[in-house]
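Laccase
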Amino acid sequence: MKSYIYTNMKMAMVLHVGFLLVLGLIHSQAALVPKSYDYEVREANFTRLCKNKTILTVNGEFPGPTIYARRGDTLIVNVKNSGNLGITIHWHGVKQPRYPWSDGPEFITQCPIKPGANFSQKIILSDEEGTLWWHAHSDWSRATVHGLIVIWPKIGRPYPFPKPYAEYPIILAEWWRQDVEAVLLDFLSTGGDPNSSDALTINGQPGDLYPCSSSETTKFIVEHGKTYMLRMVNAAMNLFMFWGIGGHEVTIVGTDGAYTKPLKSNYGVISPGQTIDLLFKADQPIGRYYFAAKPYNSQPAISFDNTTTTAIIQYKGYKKSSSPPVFPHLPKVNDTSASVNFTGSLRSLATRAHPIDVPKKITRNFLFTLSINTLPCPNNACLGPRGLRFAASVNNITFETTNISILDAYYRRINGVYGDDFPNFPPLFFNFTSSNISRSFETPLNASEVEVLEYGDTVELVFQGTNLVAGIDHPMHLHGHSFYVVGWGFGNFNRSKDRLSFNLVDPPLQQTIAVPKNGWTAIRFKADNPGVWLMHCHLERHISWGMEMTFITKNGSRKGESMLPPPPDMPPCT
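Tokens:
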């Protein structure tokens, strides 16, 4: 049986990856990291919550194996699909400069890898440094098909903070007793909300507060006086999470593969899809302390898994005691102020060694509304509001899946697959955050429209949450780019007033950002990565309902500004 006790990062590498080659890496700037990985997607049996079930995995592991790299590396991941469904893999936060062919979203940049087939995916790192992750990007397979990507500085370059004694992974996720694909098929067929998960997990284990779980609770061994790094990702399907360490203050030093100014806090919140790097010093009395995570949910009308997952941080020298581990003080499950105050406090490091480049002269402006919608249902027999079917949209367009990939259609100039008329602004303006919105606005348009950008465009995009059907936070993720989060607020965005308070000095550089319930978030980025790039909400039920759109960035005119050709083993669509 796999051990879930981590004594240092070297041990974590052995347990979680199995690459003896990387032993000692954390202490040696000259050590090598693997440049290729073999990923076999296959089913495996796991027991959680007193019940055995078969889940889809990579290499039989849950969570899946960690990828280790250095800034600027190029890696090859050979993916073999030994499962019984088509699958794609996305390298979340990796920009893949000029090479969207390995980005992974199903029917956006590729068709699924068929059962029995292989696809060698090239992972091109550029300026990313810190923690990213990978996950399936087809159906709901990412519930169990996911893992970390750890990107160290180039050899000879230090961290911009004191080197931690050791590093540990924290992968937050959800666990269903039911088959996850059955959950997906059920809520899509009924038109209602999906069944809630039955447990939250840390590194695959629910923890002490769930049945049949305490003997395998994830445990980290620490030495008094040492400083440790936690590399954390929220791989949950549908939940934001509050988290903290009992009795310990933490210092945030990075998010989404970019460094931040040190931010000290007693708690944190993490969006689905987001990564956070944090430091903590083992400076408390020798004992045991919980790392705990629980949901943050701003919409009381929806059901969700309101439980708490735990891992144990145990000091060396601890003597067995009947006292339980010290529990952190976490915000209430609906504490929106705690959520936005934490996320809104993140700032880019913005130093000479780690500079930023916030676009100042904007060439393209967008306002995108994010809405929950309804669609008609025969005989009003669906399980959405008033017997209707749930949907979701960006600027009132519910994305309609194509039967070949948009990237292939764009590259090969195949007509009729998608349109290029995605609206820059909402087609209808009203009080987006009112508590009394006319139901006539609820029905979206189903379409496969894209937004075309010129190479070098500087983009300002404001996400506007709406209160249609039910307002809620939306973790928005953009593929192929990082963006600067220059502002946020509640209510309707006021361009003439709200832009005056934008942070253009040290805004955080992210790829996934929480748009607050009935509020707005403004981002800026430069369209300097030619290709086809998906943007979507990272709440899985929302993307299943259609809250996604696609950018196409055209080739530039100079050398090195054009999309690279496809690999010879691209999965076929027929």
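The two ends are 41 Å apart (CA to CA).
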